[in-house]
Amino acid sequence: MMALIATPASAASTQGPALRDIHLPPEPSWWPPAPGWWVLAALALVGVLLAVWGWRRHRQTARRRQRILRELEQVATRYGQDGNAAALAGGIQQLLRRVARLHVPMAAQQRGEAWRQTLARMPLDAGALDTLVTLDRHIYQPGPFDHTAALNAAREWLRLALRDKYWKRRKRAVADPVPESSHV
After folding, report:
1. Who has greater pLDDT, 167 or 168?
2. Domain-by-domain residue ranges, the chain?
3. Using an 8 Å Cβ cutoff, are 127 and 156 in contact?
C-alpha cells in the first residue's frame, strides 16, 4: 500500500480553496427613510398645522370677545362720567345688534318681537331679556332707567352670544318645517 505523502500543494488541493470570513452587507442607511416614515411625517405635519390653525382661531375669537366686552365697559365708563342714560342705552343697543348681526344678518333692522326672538336665542332669564328689549325705548324716551341691570344683562348676553354653539343649536331648533303642498 502506498502511503500518501502530504505535500503543501497536495494539502491545499484536498482542503479546497482558502475561504475568507463571511462578511455581512453594510448596515441600512438612515436616509432616505422607508415609505411608512414619510407617511408618519406627513401626518405629523398635518397635525401640527391643524393645531396651529386651531390655536390661532381660538386666539382670534378670544381677542374679539375681549374687544367687545372692553367696548361695553367703555360705554359704562362714559355713562359714569356724563350720566347720559340715552347714550348708555344707545351704546349697549348698538353693541348687541352688531354681535347679533354676525349670526342673523337682518338683526340691525329688527324691531319688536323679531328683535326679542333674536335676543331670546341666548338662554337668559326673562327679566334680563325684558331689560335688553326695552333699550330701544330708552334711547328716544327719557325716563327711569336701571343702568346696572341693563349692563349686567348685556354682559351676560354678550358672553353667551360670542360663543357660536348657542347660535348653531338654536338655528337647528328654530328651523321652520316645510309646509306640505295640497294638491286639489
Report:
1. 167
2. 52-173
3. no
